[in-house]
Amino acid sequence: MLENNQLEITDQWQTKESLEALSKLDGVEVTAYSTRLVQNVFYNTTLPPTDDLNFRKALSCLFDYDMIVNTIFVDSEINYGPVSNFTAGHVRTNRYEYNLEKAKEYLNQSKYKDNYQDYEVEFLVNSDFLDIEKLALAFQSAAKQVGINVKITKAPWVTIQERVSNPDTTPHTVSINSGPQYNEAGATLESGFHSKTAGTYENCHWYITDELDKEIEDALATVDRDERFKKYADLQNKIVDEICPAAWVADLTERVAYRADRLEWPAGEAYETGNVNAYLMGYPFFVPDMRIK
């Protein structure tokens, strides 16, 4: 369709291989931008063995983060915690790194240290998004090296949404990206960790406590910007260090192919400088700013 002038811009779910092929077409360029999405791998904190903090930390040491941002989610960035680097109020939290020996240390501290090999950890992937399967396969291979049996299952997006709506049907792990509704860390903290959003695609780890709810509400209600951002920072560090309800595997850079010879598109042309611009979701495609040449 792109080659036949039936399409001006692809969606952002094209694989690295597809984009490389499209970039070879006359008049087609690949551009990149951010909508502050973070690629999460959520853990079901109510289901054995991912109900154990140290087991979750072990899983977080099984993702090859450098490989992920260089070969799967190309042009993306290493992420620190649940909030995108592009979002106001983001802080550089501690970061779990790919380290099999460290994963073994966490496993030995887990309440499942004597029987974690007996569990089958389900990793549910979106059957329409091939890059997530690549992520899952790499994770499965690393997990095998430390004695964790990972089963990869596939489902379309609508089924994933149904499954994560209930803790009993939510898999051990599922990878979903999410971003803020407005440019502040509080938006991510509320949608991703407050109990009122539990069971949505943004919040399917099922870690629910009154204490965390109150801390999020208090931060959001704080008028002074510096004080509010300090509370956001404390929450981000707490979530990473004390809860670990997910692995944050990439600060996503979205890549699309478009007909640069036919379309004037400010968001697409901005990448010509080599810098990735950040927008809120949907804003790169503000149609009144586009022109057909």
How do the helices and strands line up, and which of them pair or pack?
Layout: H1 16-22, E1 28-33, E2 38-43, H2 53-60, H3 65-72, H4 100-109, E3 120-126, H5 130-145, E4 149-155, H6 157-163, E5 173-178, H7 185-193, H8 210-221, H9 225-243, E6 246-251, E7 254-259, E8 263-264, H10 266-269, E9 291-292
Helix pairs in contact: 2-4, 7-8, 8-9
Please describe the structure with a list of short key phrases separated by commas or semicolons.
293 residues; two-stranded antiparallel sheet; five-stranded mixed sheet; Dipeptide-binding Protein, domain 3; 2 domains; alpha/beta; 9 strands
What would you note in describing this structure?
There is one protein chain. The protein has helices spanning 16-22, 53-60, 65-72, 100-109, 130-145, 157-163, 185-193, 210-221, 225-243, 266-269, and strands at residues 28-33, 38-43, 120-126, 149-155, 173-178, 246-251, 254-259, 263-264, 291-292. Helix 2 (53-60) runs antiparallel to helix 4, helix 7 (185-193) runs antiparallel to helix 8 and helix 8 runs antiparallel to helix 9 (225-243). It has 2 domains: 16-33 and 254-292, no CATH class; 38-251, Dipeptide-binding Protein, Domain 3 (Dipeptide-binding Protein, domain 3, Roll). With 293 residues, it is of the alpha/beta class. It is built from 10 helices and 9 strands. Helix 5 links the parallel strand 3 and strand 4. Strands 4-3-5-2-6 form a 5-stranded mixed β-sheet. A two-stranded antiparallel ribbon has the order 1-7. A two-stranded antiparallel sheet has the order 8-9. The model has no long low-confidence stretch (mean pLDDT 94). The radius of gyration is 20 Å and the shape is globular.
